[in-house]
Specification:
By secondary structure, the chain is of the alpha+beta class. Helix content is about 35%, strand content about 20%.
Length: about 80
């Protein structure tokens, strides 16, 4: 099932970092405004954090969710980014 990104328009960097940590990702490196997160199973996520309260654009969010974190819609609900 495809993820409805219109429901994720208000996701901030802070909320995404919280969800990453909830899923087992750990911040393993920082370089300037860039934060690198790694999961024990080998997945990695790179975030550019200029302001933690900034809202992520849908295209950026889609790339992070589908290509880097490889989350499904069920994962987004479990991590409380989408309401069940």
């Amino acid at each position: 099932m495809a993820i409805d990104y219109s429901k994720l328009r208000g996701v901030t960097v802070r909320k995404l970092i919280t969800a990453l940590k909830r899923d087992g990702f750990r911040e393993w490196r920082r370089k300037g405004a860039t934060r690198f997160f790694a999961h024990p199973d080998g997945r990695t996520v790179t975030l550019h954090v200029h302001r933690p309260g900034q809202t992520l654009k849908v295209g950026t969010l889609k790339a992070i969710i589908e290509e880097q974190a490889r989350w499904t819609e069920a994962d987004l609900k479990r991590l409380k980014l989408l309401k069940p």
